[in-house]
């Protein structure tokens, strides 16, 4: 029961953070390119990398499990938006904005992967 509560609280925080950050970025930079979704996915990737690096060195397995449920599954799950990324890319393809769609796929994949590695390297 505690695991579900931790995931619920983390998911709530991550979802609200995603809504706030992606809205802020969309207002600032416009919606020509899905910068808001890209930003929240990068932030979630860095956070997940930081957490993974930290948990790799944590001796208390019970605390590690709770942090994984709260932050990795809850916060990062609520914050990252692979489904939004996929839909936005599909819409770009439907609009025949081929270059922007391909750029979105390449940049999102590369920067999110780099975010996980960066987070891991900072802690590890």
Give descriptors for this structure.
5 helices, elongated, 124 residues, mainly alpha
Topology diagram in text:
Layout: H1 2-29, H2 35-56, H3 61-79, H4 82-94, H5 98-123
Textual characterization of the structure:
The protein is mainly alpha-helical. The protein has one domain. The chain is built from 5 helices and no strands. The protein starts with a helix and ends with a helix.
Major β-sheet, in short?
Answer: none
Number of beta strands: 0
**What is the total domain count?**
1
Q: Helical amount among residues, as a percent range?
A: over 70%
**How are helices and strands ordered from N to C?**
HHHHH
Radius of gyration: 16 Å
Summed over residues and divided by their number, the pLDDT gives a mean of 95
Number of helices: 5
**Which regions contain 5 or more consecutive residues with pLDDT less than 50?**
none
Any idea what the shape is?
Answer: elongated
Distance between the termini: 31 Å
Beta strand %: under 5%
**What structural class do the secondary elements suggest?**
mainly alpha
